[in-house]
Design goal:
About 3% of the residues have low confidence. It is globular and about 70 Å long. By secondary structure, it is of the alpha/beta class. It contains six helices and 16 strands. The strands form five sheets. The chain has a six-stranded mixed beta sheet, with helices on one face. Strands 5-4-1-16 form a four-stranded mixed beta sheet, with no helix packed on it. The protein has a two-stranded antiparallel sheet with strand order 2-3. It has two domains: 35 residues; 226 residues, Metallo-dependent phosphatases (Purple Acid Phosphatase, chain A, domain 2), CATH 3.60.21.
Length: 262
């Protein structure tokens, strides 16, 4: 048996060992990457639009770039590529635009995405292109995600926070109570936070009834909202974690997304 043959055999053995080691490490990496039973992603206030700049109010940090939505949305989706479900949190559009609504669906076509209505989303565009239903639920494994539409203005805005926004109609409220009757743990997704503007942690008086519904159900574990653009905050209250998600188009948070592993 020649030395050349022995050398060739050693090289082949080393090659096979290297391939075997690579496969073992790859499988371990994939298991590590998908170690949670369920992964859900959230993006807020995409504000897809053709405007280059938007200064939203008195807060100097509240500057967003609507015309950068394609790049920011693609980057966020890439970061959530392993998510089982992805939810937007309203204000998908900056101004009414079928063109930009269709662009959002084109960008996200290969992702398991669900849309929440915000006060900037015109109802007919939203239902025609993004979601036929204003409010609905999605069940996945041991969890139920309930999407609410609280983007409307109260019929009587006297004494109501946030310029009267946040109204949930009676039909939707009755539907919510029924859908909370489940053995599954529940996540709520809605556009406008339940807190007093500028005071995260203090429940709005007009939302005390909603907080009571969530707490009494015993199965609401998380509530996700957007709308305020600048906050990246978690507040735990009565066993429920409230998540405030900043705008994906915010100057300091471009491409921002949030993931929860359950």
């Amino acid at each position: 048996m020649s030395n050349n043959w022995k050398l060739s055999q050693i090289k082949i053995n080393i090659l096979f060992f290297g391939l075997f080691l690579f496969l073992i490490l790859s499988i371990g990496y994939l298991k590590f990457e998908s170690s949670s039973d369920l992964e859900i992603g959230f993006v807020a206030d995409i504000h897809a639009g053709d405007q280059s700049y938007r200064n939203d109010g008195a807060d100097p940090e509240n500057i967003i770039f609507p015309d950068r939505f394609e790049k920011n949305f693609r980057n966020a989706l890439l970061g959530m590529r392993r998510a089982d479900l992805i939810f937007t949190l309203g204000d998908n559009l900056n101004r009414p635009s079928r063109k930009n609504a269709k662009k959002l669906t084109e960008i996200s076509r290969s992702y398991p995405i669900y849309w929440t209505k915000g006060n900037h989303d015109k109802l007919n565009h939203f239902q025609e292109i993004l979601s036929k239903e204003r409010y609905y639920y999605v069940d996945k494994k041991d969890w139920r995600v309930i999407v609410l539409d609280n983007s409307a203005t109260y019929p009587d805005t006297t004494g109501i926070d946030d310029h009267g926004r946040g109204f949930i109609d009676e039909d939707q409220l009755n539907w919510l109570k029924e859908k909370l009757k489940t053995e599954k743990k529940v996540i709520i997704a809605m556009h406008i936070p339940m807190f007093v503007p500028g005071n995260p942690g203090a429940i709005r008086k007009d939302y005390e009834y909603l907080e009571e519904i969530f707490v009494k159900s015993g199965n609401v574990k998380h509530v996700f909202s957007g709308h305020w653009h600048i906050y990246d905050k978690e507040i735990e209250k009565d066993g429920i974690v409230y998540h405030l998600i900043p705008s994906l188009s915010l100057e300091s948070k471009q491409g921002f997304y949030s993931k929860i592993e359950l």
